[in-house]
## 1
Amino acid sequence: MKPRIYTDTSVIGGCLDIEFEKHSLELLEEFKTGSKIITISDLTLKEIEDAPTEIKEMLDSIPEKNIEYVELDDEARFLANKYIEEKAISENFLVDSQHIAIATINRNDVLVSWNFKHIVNLRRIHLYNSTNLKYGFPTIEIRSPREVINEK
């Protein structure tokens, strides 16, 4: 089976950022070729509504057959709030906790992000996963795009 990769907004936006563009573009290319499936949430789509046209075009360039759409549902809202209650993340970063919860609830193979402060952060990943286990959810792998691309 092809890996299903929940991709947050920072990865898509990273395509236009000098620091992150190389690995963001390589990962998007893997989504285009179908070697990996991109999982996009309604939350991500809402966040990129006001993004530059180039960002929207990059997402639009991925064939529909290689995209899985998921939603922020009640179960994900519940889990996102548990991350806050368990102090894995501050309530000021509810959207970040929602991204993690959506990826967890939908049993994605990995969540990719360039957000090293609130998402791709070892201490926080441990807290997210201990919260997941405490409330009966699976653990989630959280990585940067650099860690999941098939480098040549």
## 2
Amino acid sequence: MSSITPIELRVVETVLGMGSGYVLDFTNRSFSEFFRAQQVNIDGERYAGEGVSKANRLRCFLHSAPDRSAAQVLNELLKYRAFIDSPPDAKKQDLDFYSAAVLRLSGHVAPTTEASTTAGGSESDLLRLVLKPDGFLSLPIEEALARAMLDRMNEAQRCIDAKAYLAAVILCGSVLEGVCLGYGASHPEQVNRAFSAQYGKDPRRLTDWHLSEWIDVLARAGVLSQNVVKFGVGLRDFRNYVHPAAQLSTGFAPDLHTARIGFQVVVAAVDDMATATATATGKA
């Protein structure tokens, strides 16, 4: 069974133009022939569980196929899409995310590019990360709180899938601040020293820190990666966007890409903190 995520599937649908039941410019016959070349009988009953349109059969295949088979088909579909140049209006970030999903499902690691080494990590590196429940449960916070934040992440994923992007950003921002505060409360001396070094002044109470401060301080302390710093901008002032007037004053209108990046920033931050915790406790 494929581990493709709802966010990855949404991007696949966008890149392959699956909104109306079609897949690219395939006819029923050419669609069958394409899959036959991949050793898949896409017209079989096993792929009709979500409907009989080409898009629904592809969704059913992606949900049920092994990861490597799903990656192979998605890669071939992307090659075909480039050949016919359709649909022509796909955003570069969607294409990058699609490619990152193929890499993840295939079990390969994306090559390090000059941009990633000089700017602290690439967007495709970030988008390739997968939400790991065990990561939350390994953080130095109460288990009940960890599970509550994990529930929020699962809800944020459902919001993204339902195109409720602002709700997703707010949920992800609340989780990121929660895990940062939890980590800081368990390592007060470390984060207070980093705060003073970062800002040249005495730190306030941990509960009074802004999300932007948490990101800067934990990055300075070597806990958070530069990917979290680089792509965390969309979450930094999330509290303001709870209020409609603040949203209107800034013109903030999150789209799929913004919400998806925000979600992945939290995944990356939790991975970073879990690694730091394991190192500190000798469990790395």
